[in-house]
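Quick question about two entries, pasted in order.
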Amino acid sequence: MRRTLTVTAATAALLLPGGPLPAAGSGETARAAATHWSAREARSFWTAGRMASARPAGPATPWPGAGTVPATARETTAGPGTGEDFDGLPVVGRMFVMKDDGAYFCTASVVSSPGRDLVLSAAHCLLGTDTRQVAFVPRYTIENPQPYGMFPVLRGSDGRSKVWIDPRYRSRGADRGAAFDVAFAQVGPDTGGFPVEDVVGGNRLVTGAGYAHERVSLIGYPATAARPRLCVNRTTRFTSADPGIPGTFLRIDCTGYPGGTSGGPFLTHFDERTGTGDVVGVIGGWKTGGDTPDTSYSSYFGTEVRELYEKAAASAE
């Protein structure tokens, strides 16, 4: 089961189009129309109804008991490998995007940066020449769609969204480039002018930490649930034997992570006081995150991811 939509190299781009460009008009008018995408506009466009109707960027597989969830986060008793719906964390949310055939979403999380405005997800969630109106909504739930507001993914002067993806993922595609299935995006301030990290905090990016972690909190937004999902388990090293999908990945067994959970963070050293942790992976990579909803994968966070982050942080500043 592919976790989200696979985008071919022929249609992928390193930076996303920020929306349909104007067909005619003066240079200044066209440039303004292409680049203007504020928090106010994002909130107007992404209504509660439109967000609720968004589909995961790919097929979704329901699991037994979907919808029967604990009433509060405190009641969540997710054991090793057992996913449970919970009230979520401010630092994790849904990333909404529009494509020509409708509204889609993945999972994303805030990562600490000098500009306090970077969000982390999977590359396959943010590729596509027809992707537009991209916005991050922290701690989204059906019952409370915008508890911390909405943060638009900014656009450059060329009208493209400010997203950083390893060019090898773009050129090789989702399978042969699975080892590089990571993306950073710069989001603008909320309607009050505050950067996202000031509002909800940020996880610390950790690279070069190996594959085996004894306690990882996996968080994602399943398509069939009204709230996000939490699971705690250990990770192991998985090396692909498929020459068409080369690479070595983090692997975690956690039940109930179907379509929509792509881009969800692997968190270690979670601090309940701050609601943040060290992010060592995101759901993606091998088969864009896994071919069953009960086992998830991540591209390894090594030198390449650190360099990509530093490029994004420097460009965002």
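Here is the second entry:
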Amino acid sequence: MASARVRGGAVIGAVVLSLLAVPAPAVGREAPVAGAAALPAADLAGLRGVLRGAGRQGAPGAMARIDDRGTVRRAAVGVADRSTGRALADRDRFRVGSVTKTFTAVVLLQLAAEGRLRLDDPVHRHLPGSLPDRRITVRHLLSHRSGLYDYTNDMFARTVPGFEAVRDRVFTYRQLVDRSLRHPRTNAPGAAYAYSNTNFVVAGMLVEKLTGGPVGRAYESRIVRPLGLRDTFYVHPATGIPGRHARGYLTPDRAGAPLVDSTRQTVSWAQSAGALVSSTRDLNTFYSALLGGRLTSAAMLAQMKRWVTVDGTQSYGLGLRRRKLSCGVSVYGHTGAVQGYYTYAFTSGDGSRSLTALANTSNNGAVLNSLLGTLEPVFCGKKAKTRPAGPVRRYEDIAPQVPVTAPQARLAESAGD
């Protein structure tokens, strides 16, 4: 592991969330939120400590960027490429995993604002015969309350063999949905939050049906070009990442086995649920614009922030996560996991302070456990709550019902969103 390189002061955080179903959800509207002007200064020393910890616990490289009212702080540790030893840097692109879900939700909210659909429309109104339960609505998909089983539980029950089986595969949306429908639904529509990639595969089907074109074109025309994002691409089914990028490394299930370079892949198993490529700068720009009201109408942003309770500190809206921190501040964004990459992207209530972090490893609960506290130093400052010692069980965005287990001491904190 290369020594830490810190520029200005920031930190990585790459946490993927606890995705277990919970009892029938309480849905609430957003309370007033404070902007960055009310936030304490970020604890940069604390952030550097988290960054170095991720490196010690197995991340080949990790980095973060903070954008705060025009001030940019960057930090990096380790390498982007283990074979060449090239240092990881802020300009490296990477696969963002489930952060893609927020992009997909934004497109559907824009289409709703244009009158192309309603959030409470049954999915079968737009995709006749696609799902066996006609009660499932667009809102249910975007809030993970459809009850559709997550097909990735089967795909990735064994981490490396599961990945190698799909690395070069190109799936249709229908094939992925059919894999889900081999299983009973996890709950009745609307009854409970239960994270499932299947929801956002169906959401991608809706985008393509309503726009008459591929989902990547919708991202490009509705988000990427309007925001001037220079590093954000939907390359599916191509297997490469354009331009300078960090290589991704998948941790095998067997303790002591070498990391697997998982950079080259179609990510066809995820598509509109997790196949975007981006950068720390672009993701900060995206979430800042979203919470600042520049990507949706005010009415649609309010719908996006109708929260379903996940646990005592976390809630899920429509493709958007909210986490309440120890200092009382709430932050908004998403996390992502795709083989070889953990991404963590959140912003303040008005979008004026944003953090995106990346670790180029996955299936490593020690890294997850280390990085869970990233938000506290960034948004709560030096009075951030100290995380409890000791690892506990945790689940991931990939195969959410398959635990990250003990053989490699890869247990991680269960209080993710």
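Reply: DSSP finds 13 helices and 16 strands in the chain. The radius of gyration is 19 Å. Hope that helps.
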